[in-house]
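Trying the structure run again after the queue cleared.
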Amino acid sequence: MRLLTGVLIFVATPLAVFGGEWVSLFDGKSTVGWTPRAEVVRFEAVDGVLELESEKNVWVLSDLKRGDFVFEGEVKIPADAAETGFNSGLAFRCVGDEGKPKGYQLEIDGPHPGETGGVYAIGMGGWIYPTKETKDEYLERIGKALKKGEWNRYRVECEGPRIRTYVNDVLIADVEDDRSLEGSFGIQHHGKGGVVRFRNLRVKELSGDDG
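Done. Tokens:
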């Protein structure tokens, strides 16, 4: 695992083209295609939004699995998230048939900015980015990208071991890790504080066609 930094990496090793069609992970009216891995207080579709409330740390996993892709979604956390210690995330490349999966998480939490936009290895050792050594760099990247109290747009791009995350189109993490290269997507509620809301969840498969 190594951190990729600097502009030159984008010139030397560009990502392949994300040339597939967008596939919606949420139909806007039901929870079809999603399975909670623990008991929840509420998980339902309301006016085009997936709403998740739980008193336990719970992952809700998608039926859809992908390896190389771009994954996007919008998330809104509770207004009192900082006070309650609220924590959530968007998961990807998750494996395991029940309980806590193994894979990766794009962090979404209550403190502003906390580690939001960072990459956490679920069941595989914890933080990939930011670390103690990269925290200052992370804070510079997140800057004013995060909109407190509003819907925020998140994006994950994966090609082989390379993982990039964005918050409102601002690059946050650019790392490599090869412990899980394919799996399901997911959403999380860590069990503290209110309802987390998700919308416009979609994925586009990586294409080898460079146009």
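Helices lie at 8-12, 81-84, 135-142. Worth checking whether this holds up in the mutant runs.
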